[in-house]
Amino acid sequence: RLSDKLGKVFKKLKGHGKLTEANIQEALREVRLALLEADVHYKVAKTFIDRIRERALGQEVMTSLTPGQQVVKIVHDELAALLGGEAPRLELGGKTPVALMLVGLQGSGKTTTAAKLALYLKKQGRQPLLAPVDTQRPAAIEQLHRLGAEIGVDVYRSQPQQNPVALASEAMAAAVAKGHDVLLLDTAGRLHVDAPLMAELQAIKADVGPAEILLVADAMTGQDAVAVAQNFHEALDLTGVILTKVEGDARGGAALSMRTVVNKPIKFLGVGEKLDALEVFHPDRLASRILGMGDVLTLIEKAQDAFDADQAKELERKLRKETFTLEDFRDQLRQVRKMGSLDQLMGMIPGLNKIKGMKDMQPDEKELVRIEAIINSMTPAERANHVLIDGSRRRRIAKGSGVEVQDVNRLLKNFAMTQKMMKKMIQAGKKGGKRRFLP
Ligand code: GDP
Ligand code: MG
């Protein structure tokens, strides 16, 4: 991972008295390699490195930062700048219903993203109408109807084999008639960019006059996605990009390159198959994430959605008073599994990816089951106060849960670390002055 690589580079820089030309050069060489490995377009990487060099060399060494921290800060700021400033999430002003058009290759995630956006808008009190404009594939139409039913959003019912352009304008008329304020057009995709499709999309655009034309692009396809984006942008003049499937490693690379090539804001990230797996895109957060600093705010926002308010309040109280117990730890593990991919969540907690023991116990579902078994084998008193658990108790617990004593030892060590991390997380969330667990 890019973040691991950069982490290593900056560790090397730490402990040097000041930024010298030589160590900046060395760090930048590593950064460049790391960027290329993360699938960042080579031209983007070059521009980026040049900018960092210029800034790093021209700058006084700040007394408050170590040289390593200072380079991290510069790289972070530049990454955030490259990824673009904050953009409006969606252009929803003007005459209602506002049409949003989703375009992209087949399989990029358009239909899923249309439903995710509908849910997102519904949560904000809007009344979206979903319209499948894919007239070729009945299965795609059915898919959207199914997703719409799941989230309780209306889906326009089209006639079979209807002309897509006529269909789009009829959907618009239906949106007007039924008082919807947003119309989400899920357009047809192809496996490759082709001229008839582009012509069809241009005709829909001319007819409906969408406020946004959003390219839905699969981040896993890396540089291919960038070439595709260029094609769609030339034909349709996109207003923004939604990157999907960014849970994987390619997220940093694809986003950076996409942003540079299309030069339109990335508005959302798709981070999973579930319909709430949509994140507002924050350039500075992605920059932090690429650098391995973790993304505390996103994590906390996620936590906020998944926890019910009382539970969150209770957790915050416990963390404050440092009465977070093994029992809570077990509940947390269960919650975390509800929230989504563990790997993804752990990656967002600062420092967690660097702690060895934590990494070992991280993504393996079987390990989670084992941890639960171990905690279940403890007495309530032990769960409430892990300090009680001495050598003989450890042996008893290991026997009871069918594991080795080392497993119990490791769990207790990890628990102690988690206790610390959770505390830090809360503090970091507070420092940011943003939302915490409490709404
Ligand atoms: P379309 O052909 O562009 O409409 O693509 P679909 O919406 O049908 O999605 C294709 C596949 O990608 C489906 O299996 C989706 O569940 C999956 N998918 C969509 N978005 C995401 C995402 O953000 N993460 C993951 N992991 N899968 C996604
Ligand atoms: Mg589709």
Full CATH superfamily name of the largest domain: P-loop containing nucleotide triphosphate hydrolases
What's the N-to-C terminus distance? Answer: 33 Å
Number of helices: 20
* CATH topology call of the largest domain: Rossmann fold
What does this structure look like?
Helix content is 59%, strand content 9%. Residues 350-363 and 431-439 have low confidence and may be disordered. The protein has an eight-stranded mixed beta sheet with strand order 3-2-4-1-5-6-7-8, sandwiched between helices. The protein contains 20 helices and eight strands. Helix 2 (21-37) runs antiparallel to helix 3 (42-58) and helix 3 crosses helix 4. The longest helix is centred in the last third of the chain and has 27 residues, at 405-431. It has three domains: 2-83, Four Helix Bundle (Hemerythrin (Met), subunit A) (Up-down Bundle); 98-283, 3-Layer(aba) Sandwich (Rossmann fold), CATH 3.40.50; 296-431, Orthogonal Bundle (434 Repressor (Amino-terminal Domain)). The chain has 439 residues and is an alpha/beta fold. The protein has helices at 2-13, 21-37, 42-58, 67-83, 110-123, 138-151, 164-177, 195-208, 223-236, 251-262, 283-290, 296-306, 309-321, 326-339, 342-348, 356-360, 365-376, 380-384, 391-401, 405-431; strands spanning 98-103, 128-132, 154-155, 182-186, 212-218, 240-244, 266-270, 278-280. Bound molecules: guanosine-5'-diphosphate and magnesium ion. Guanosine-5'-diphosphate is lined by residues 104, 106-112, 189, 244-245, 247, 270-273, 277.
